[in-house]
Amino acid sequence: MGIFSVSEITCYIKDLLDGDGTLADVFVRGEISNFKRHYSGHCYFTLKDAGATLRCVMFRSRAQFLKFEPRDGLKIVAGGHISVFERDGQYQLYVDQLVPAGLGELGLALQQLKEKLAAEGLFAEERKKPLPLLPKAVGVITSPVGAALRDIITVARRRHPGIPIVLYPVQVQGPESAPQIAHAIRVFNRLANVDVLIVGRGGGSLEELWAFNEEETVRAIAASAIPVVSAVGHETDYTLADFAADRRAATPSQAAEIVFPDVHELERYIRMLRQAMETHARNYIQRYRLLVDQYRDSRALRRRPIEIVAAKQQLLDISLQRLHHIVKEQFTAKQHRFKVIAEKLAVLNPLMVLARGYSIVRTPDGRIIRAADQVGKDQLLEIVLYHGRIEARVEKIGEEHDNGRKD
């Protein structure tokens, strides 16, 4: 009978396991316990069920691609191969992939991150900032070639064409999308050149929308000093960006409806304020005038001694002066408010710019031309004037000289 050393018998058993085709590529279902992530990045844990336990290890080269965080009590399916760890003389599962049972990897990662960020208060209502009633400029962070941008521009032109749109083009899908979106938000905050941000894209699957569930994107939205409207085209489902944003829109078109005020509604609102102010002032004066007349006509006042009547009349004069002062102050304040709103509206009215002799040059499909290199020879253009429109064809494209004039 041969005698083996511990190392020899362990190697023999290891060779047996390594040579078994079933154990070379196996999937095992169980519940995680004793999970530990080593500082090296390797993960050590045990899989268990009602009747047995199995030691497992997942090396850093595989664990770094996990989208969720394994934890005790989680039911998973682990794939890999079974072999012997010779130093301890124990067999274990060397895990190549780890899949949650039930939600799926992305769903579990989303749930875990949501719980983490909610615990930090990033989704709290008290953090939400109000949107400006009349923004001077609107920043848009999305793909420059997607339908989302076209929808936003279409709605903005219809509701308030005088408010400029500043686009920061980014990828909205893929591994580079989340860093680009977060960077764009920080750039707008540093420049402070817009009053509100629309961040979003068109609809898609959970994987396609994942950039708006990434922790980097969500934290950038929550940290923005500029109010943010999330506009991811998924009417029924929410991304984490929706929870962090100051306002959630179901689609990019709805985001534009929220951000861009209707210029015609503003005009009606100003007229209503003016009428209400005039009516309030008239009623205020009429009410006190009636009180004064009633006081003067009082029979009791006429029966009083002359000195008392004189004192009452003096008090009446003081009251009238005070009433006049109060009415004048209220009227002046409301008049000033009306003037401020009217001036803002006039500044943002594109027709006022055209009235000063300027014009808008655009292509037949509505694209605004800002530079000569945007057009080509023989291209049809539409010139919008204060009164009417002109159709023109490009015959020559000039170059800018030092004096600012073009040929």
**Secondary-structure element pattern, one letter each:** HHEEEHEEHEHEHEHEHEHHHHHEEE
Radius of gyration: 36 Å
Class by SSE composition: alpha/beta
Tell me how many strands there are: 13
Enumerate how many helices there are, as a single number. Answer: 13
Q: Distance between termini?
A: 105 Å
| Main pleated-sheet profile | 5 strands, mixed, barrel
Subunit structure: Heterooligomer composed of large and small subunits.
Catalytic activity: Exonucleolytic cleavage in either 5'- to 3'- or 3'- to 5'-direction to yield nucleoside 5'-phosphates
Pfam families: Exonuc_VII_L, tRNA_anti_2
GO cellular component, one term: cytoplasm
Quick summary:
With 407 residues, this protein is α/β, with parallel strands linked by helices. The chain is built from 13 helices and 13 strands.
